[in-house]
Design brief:
single chain, about 130 residues, alpha+beta, Nucleotidyltransferase, domain 5, about 15% strand
């Protein structure tokens, strides 16, 4: 999870959220959103390299729909391809494998959010409920 500002385009990692159970993950995201007084939520959308949506992408879209209902906020999907690679490159040679994996996820979240800001995500990113199967 990361937080940032669309005004500055800067995002910072906050924490790694365990995805299971999903209800707990959603509760943590809702709590963090309230604590940081966010205006919207960006969910990383793992598309395939051919732009198709696989099972993991569909799951993330469902979670994004659930977040929109739970928070009544503007929730957007953003292509997360290569975000883990970018985070891995940033951490190369700095940490043990276990610590690296933990920070990789947090940095990937910040990368996704920064890409969202740089790519005019607020105007162009789809809302999960608008994506058709």
């Amino acid at each position: 999870m990361a937080a940032g500002s669309s005004e500055t385009g800067i995002a910072s990692p906050l924490e790694v959220i365990t995805a299971s159970p999903i209800a707990l993950a959603l509760a943590v995201i809702c709590r963090q959103a309230a604590e940081h007084d966010v205006q919207g939520i960006v969910v990383g959308w793992p598309l395939n390299m051919d732009d198709s949506e696989g099972p993991q992408g569909k799951l993330c879209r469902k979670i994004a729909c659930d977040l929109a209902k739970l928070t009544d906020m503007d929730v957007r999907l953003w292509d997360e391809r290569l975000s883990s690679f970018a985070a891995d490159q940033a951490l190369a040679g700095q940490l043990t494998r276990k610590k690296k994996k933990q920070w990789q996820d947090a940095l990937a979240a910040a990368t996704i959010l920064q890409d969202f800001f740089a790519g005019d995500g607020p105007a162009t990113a789809p809302k999960p409920q608008d994506v058709k199967d």
